[in-house]
Structure formats: structure tokens, C-alpha cells
Amino acid sequence: MRITILTGAGISAESGLATFRASDGLWENHSIMDVATPEGFTKDPALVHAFYNMRRKAALEAQPNAAHLSLLRLATHHDLTLVTQNVDDLHERAGSRDVIHMHGALNRACCAACGHNWPAPMVMHPKDSCPACGKPSPRPDIVWFGEMPLHMERIWDVLENSDLFVAIGTSGNVYPAAGFAQHAGRNGAKCLELNLEASVNADDFDQQILGPASMTVPGWVDDICHA
Ligand code: BJW
User: Fold this and answer.
1) I need a labelling partner for 218 at 20 to 30 A (CA). Which of 94, 121, 126, 154 fits?
2) Closest ligand 1 atom, CA of 7?
3) Under CATH, domain 18-61+109-142 is a member of which superfamily?
4) Is 103 a catalytic residue?
């Protein structure tokens, strides 16, 4: 079966990484406009670097959980494409390969002046310079609001050729990812949501399994691998 999975912050919550929109989430003490837009970065690069330096450290200290690990097993039984909105590398550290990071990666840096992309140091600073062009324009390789998510042609293509689309731990608040279930469904895929609470776009799914990802994802993977 051709399965496309979209993961969000909820799959990494039980690894100790905060989600965005929970009451104790990442944006509780930060304005979205300040830390998740290119305008916020231009206005106060030190604040934005501090936010992502903190996130980079938290991601390094976190370990993949049972949900990340079970997706590896799924890939041995089915034709799986794994798309994540997450900027951590817990899928890769669980062993998944060819993960599509549509919102970028904490462990990469890029140059706003020349586009060069390189492994991010643990701590980035506004005075850093680009190793390729020398300009003081490095930024985290993260897709902020108003910027184009990455690998979209490939993602639309797999969604149009999936038998099953599964969203795991994402609230459905952010486009274009929030439109994937509708797009896959229109193209013939069954759509399943695995989440702690139903997402805002729950109506786009044929079925929901609610509960913590470390329980629901391995359980669902067991079922589909032995069906
Ligand atoms: C558990 C759990 C457990 C908890 N087990 N589950 C209409 C159509 C198209 C676009 C737009 C539109 N209206 C507005 C837009 C633009 C905008 C947008 O969507 N805005 C919304 C606010 C409406 N989108 C964009 O700007 C995107 N670009 C774009 O559209 O480009 C085209 C374009 C360009 C230029 C001009 C015009 C068009 C870019 C979006 C970039 C998002 N970036 C962020 C931050 C950067 C990454 C980072 O810092 O990490 O990405 S925003 C933030 O939200 C982050 C996440 O990846 C993303 C999604 O969040 P997620 O993963 O869903 O987390 P939460 O916290 O919301 O939810 C957690 C979930 O987990 C919950 O459901 C819990 O129940 C669950 N959970 N514990 C299982 N244990």
C-alpha cells in the first residue's frame, strides 16, 4: 500500500519537545510574529537566534519515542513517504531515511544573501558570517510564516498517488499542511488522523484514533503490518 504520513509537533511531545499551541507550548512566552516570521528576524535577530538556539539544544537532548520508532517498522511493510512539519531530527535518529522536512531543520543554517546551506552550529549569533559569501546573513534553515514550504512539488505528487494519508500529532492550523488530507482524499486516498485531540480539520478525515502518539502509532502500525 502507498502510505503518506504527515507528522507534527505532537509526535515529539512525549520525547519532551514542547508543541506550539498548547497552553504551556513554545509560543506561550513568544509572539508568533516575533519568532516565526522573516520580519521578526529582521527586527530582532538576537531574539530569534536565542529561540532557535534553545530549540536546537532541546532537540539534541531529546530521544525518539515509540511513535517515531514504529514508523521505521511500517516502512519495511509498505511504500511509505514520511513528510514532517517538525524541525527536529527525531525521525532520522529513530532510523527513518528520506524524511521530507517541509518546514526546514534546526540542524541546518542558510544564508539569506546567497542561499548557501550548511550544518548549523549549536549556537547561532547575529554576527555570524556566511562561509560561502562572507556576508553577515546566516539564519536558521526554518520556514517561517509567509515563506514557501520546502519540497512542495514532491509532496503534492505523493499525496495524489497515495492509498492512505495519515496525519499524526498536528493541529491543522497551518497551511499548506492543513490542506493535505483534503487533497489526498480528493485524489482517492483514505485519510486517518492519529492525535491527542481532534484537529481543527478533523472533518477532512475518514477516521480518528485519539490518544498519545507513543500508544496509538505503534498500535496502528501493528494492525496495518499484520492486516
Ligand atoms: C499530541 C500529543 C501526543 C500533543 N500525542 N498528539 C490559507 C491557505 C494557505 C496558506 C495560508 C492560508 N491562510 C494563511 C496562510 C499562510 C500561513 C498559515 O497557514 N497561517 C495560518 C495561521 C492560517 N502559512 C504559511 O505562511 C506557510 N507558507 C505558505 O503558505 O506559503 C505560500 C505563500 C507564500 C508567500 C505568500 C503567500 C503564500 C508557511 C508556514 C510555516 C510554518 N512554520 C512554523 C514555525 C517554523 C518551524 C519551527 O519553528 O519549528 O512551523 S509555524 C508552526 O506550526 C511550526 C509547525 O510545523 C506548524 C504546525 O504546528 P503543529 O505541528 O500542528 O503543532 P501544534 O502545536 O499546532 O499542534 C500540536 C498537535 O499535537 C495538537 O493537535 C495536539 O493535540 C497534538 N499532541 N501532544 C499525539 N502526546
Assistant:
1) 154
2) 62
3) SIR2/SIRT2 'Small Domain' (3.30.1600.10)
4) yes
- Determine whether the shortest distance from the Cβ of 173 to ligand 1 is under 6 A: yes
pLDDT < 70 stretches in the chain: none
Global pTM reads 0.96
Residue 142 CB–ligand 1 contact under 6 Å: yes
Give per-residue pLDDT as tens, 96-124: 999 999 999 999 999 999 999 999 999 99
Q: Is the CB of 140 under 6 A from ligand 1?
A: no
Which residue has the least CA distance to atom 2 on ligand 1?
A: 10
Beta bridge partner(s), residue 82: 5
| One CATH from 3.40.50.1220, 3.40.47.10, 3.10.520.10, 3.40.630.30 for 1-16+64-103+149-227 | 3.40.50.1220
Options 77, 103, 116, 125, the catalytic residue: 103
φ, ψ (nearest 5 deg) of residue 82: -110, 115
Q: Residue 2 phi/psi, 5° resolution? A: -90, 115
pLDDT in tens, 186-212: 999 999 999 999 999 999 999 999 999
